[in-house]
């Protein structure tokens, strides 16, 4: 508990665990806030987001709570078309958590920030009594700049828009479930946790006339599409045969009684683009490492506004509902 008391132990934690992991000049000043120079960064609109991460277990195939905290916030900024620049991070630590575990998570945060090209410039640490937490919770907030000419928001989806997904879906949620419950599905499955700001840059490099970007995390593709359809008052029609669901995810979902469209992702995005730009955007996505498996999965229509429908492999149509709750809790 002494590490959360603001005294010598707190200073040691900051000095020996967090500062070496994040390595930033503004953070090293240890002020109550970071003062940052935004001049000449190429935009006059700020994007600002915050998120908290409570994943269990802390480390999983393909990532950890550290990568999730950085990538989740970076991706939320990128989905507004912003270039992520600065992050804050707050660690809520449970009494009794091994400091080496805290250090390992902090190192993952620092490495993920470096990979995404963002700076961790301010932070906070609190310690709660044993039994009142689950090892480590992490909160991150992020600031980015929105370039001129970019207007990306859910209510801009329009009839005719082509819906593109950047790769295989459902991987993160099933990877978490497999390690949490000790399940084996015949092959190793790793989370798709990764930053998507580079992929968004590639998309906007083709055209700034991108209507919607969304990373389908909790609630999966189904939740994201329903939210967009309702915000824009459009219908969305999917082709189930075009959905990139890997066999291991499909088999696991069949075994567990889950819908792959409702399983969380942490390194995929949905892009709604006018048909005139769809082929060029798809090619740019496939040329980027984070979008190698990009594919067209549907279109926006004027019919049935606010509703998402899917054409099955048998030619029938079904409604893709908004999930009622959390199929897989504590996945981010």
UniProtKB/TrEMBL annotation:
Occurrences of domain PurM-like N-terminal (ranges): 32-146
Pfam families the record matches: AIRS, AIRS_C
Sequence ranges assigned to domain PurM-like C-terminal in this UniProt record: 159-304
Domain of life: Bacteria
A GO biological process held by the record: protein maturation
InterPro entries from the UniProt entry: HypE, PurM-like_C_dom, PurM-like_C_sf, PurM-like_N, PurM-like_N_sf
Residue ranges crossing the lipid bilayer per the database entry: none
Family of this protein: Belongs to the HypE family.
Protein name: Hydrogenase expression/formation protein HypE
